[in-house]
Please model this.
Amino acid sequence: MADFDQELDASGLNCPLPILRAKKTLNSMSSGQVLHIIATDPGSVKDFDSFAKQTGNELMESKEEGGKFHFLIKKS
Amino acid sequence: MEQKKLAIIATKGSLDWAYPPFILASTAAALGYEVQIFFTFYGLQLLKKDLSLEVTPLGNPGMPMPMGMDKWFPILGMTLPGMQGMMTAMMKQKMKKKGVASIDELRELCIEAEVKMVACQMTVDLFDMEQSQFIDGIEYAGAAAFFEFAGESDICLYI
Model:
């Protein structure tokens, strides 16, 4: 997994909390910085894809590892 | 790109029906929408400082029941005193276990995200409710005010 600037563990949280927490964390970051999100909600895979498309932040990576979902989002 | 707008009318005051307006409003706000919710009739319960929302299986054959309760307690059993409180407690416990946010939490996230909340003045008066019962920072208005925002909205939902 590529480098990241901040990490957000949203494990155990269900829709829409992972997205809301990610948005809040991104707000505190600067443009170009990368956020690593860890989630266990299977719905978050499609949701983070949609979130990125609608907000213009880039979803650099989305993968499942060790029963958890990992996302890398670069702030636009 | 111009900011998109979401307008919601929230008309229901039970625990289960409290979720859609707050989930959609908070998520839309996170996606960059400007959001307004107009609370009317039983939806006003969602604006109370003290939320005492309950859930009932009565009149709702689609509600999944824990531990085969629907077999042990057919419809008439659900009318027994204390049954609604018990169902509500079980539902809240299940939600907590599954990492589903509480209504308090989602409402707070909506406020943080500057979702505008409007209480229907007519139904506030109809039910003899007091403004002191409601959370701060909300507005009181009527149907015409709703249309001012809804008429310009990209998405308009009646819940």
